[in-house]
């Protein structure tokens, strides 16, 4: 199965995957899991730069909620990821070390030098691009309906031949 990253943010998915895979390897976990990354739902995420999350205990999924780009504390993000991964490995809050439980402490060695970039924004399509796309759609629809019309004519001819056959049989029966 491998690692599935469902990224609903503007953060670079390749960077997220690289960070997650390295952390998973360092913690001795299997990469067979799904990690959803989304923006935090409360103003706290952006105002404090803190991340939050939730994960299954002895499971293969977690959700990480991050502040918007430019407002994130990278160390807090990494420590939150380790905290949620510990849940995936079956560790409950009362069994965690204080630093892991509270998402506090220094940046782990495995995360040093790693960065989390932002996706390049897609350029907005110009009016000419939109018109061209609509024209292409119209051409495809014309081709589609021409094929349907040809098929309808073929089917109609087929059924008319059958009708003529049965009318001929009926007429031949009536003359005997």
Describe the structure.
With 176 residues, this protein is an alpha/beta fold. It folds into two domains: 3-111; 123-176. The protein has five helices and four strands, in the order βαβαββααα. It has helices at 13-26, 43-48, 74-88, 98-102, 127-175; strands at residues 3-7, 33-39, 52-55, 61-66. It has a four-stranded mixed sheet, covered by helices on one side. The model has no long low-confidence stretch (mean pLDDT 93).
- Proportion of residues in extended strands: 5-15%
Evaluate the radius of gyration: 30 Å
Largest sheet: 4 strands, mixed
Number of strands: 4
Question: Portion of residues in helices?
Answer: 40-55%
Outline: elongated
Ends apart, CA distance between termini: 74 Å
| Physical arrangement of strands within the biggest beta sheet | 1-2-4-3
What's the rounded overall pLDDT mean?
93
Q: From N to C, what is the helix and strand string?
A: EHEHEEHHH
Poorly predicted ranges: none
Structural class: alpha/beta
Helix segment tally = 5
Which characteristics define this entry?
alpha/beta, 5 helices, 12% strand
Brief description of this entry?
This protein has 176 residues and is of the alpha/beta class. The protein is built from five helices and four strands; from the N terminus they run βαβαββααα. Helix 1 (13-26) packs across helix 3 (74-88).
């Amino acid at each position: 199965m491998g690692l599935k990253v469902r990224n609903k943010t503007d953060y670079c998915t390749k960077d997220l995957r690289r960070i997650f895979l390295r952390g998973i390897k360092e913690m001795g976990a299997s990469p067979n899991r799904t990690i959803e990354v989304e923006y935090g739902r409360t103003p706290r995420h952006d105002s404090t730069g803190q991340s939050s999350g939730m994960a299954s205990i002895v499971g293969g999924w977690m959700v990480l909620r991050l502040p918007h780009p430019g407002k994130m504390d990278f160390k807090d993000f990494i420590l939150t990821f380790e905290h949620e991964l510990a849940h995936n490995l079956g560790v409950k809050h009362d069994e965690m070390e204080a630093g892991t439980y509270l998402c506090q402490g220094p940046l782990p060695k495995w995360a040093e030098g790693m960065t989390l970039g932002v996706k390049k924004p897609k350029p907005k399509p110009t009016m000419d691009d939109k018109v061209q796309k609509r024209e292409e759609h119209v051409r495809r629809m014309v081709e589609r309906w021409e094929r349907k019309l040809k098929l309808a004519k073929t089917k109609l001819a087929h059924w008319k031949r059958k009708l003529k056959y049965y009318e001929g049989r009926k007429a031949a029966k009536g003359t005997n």
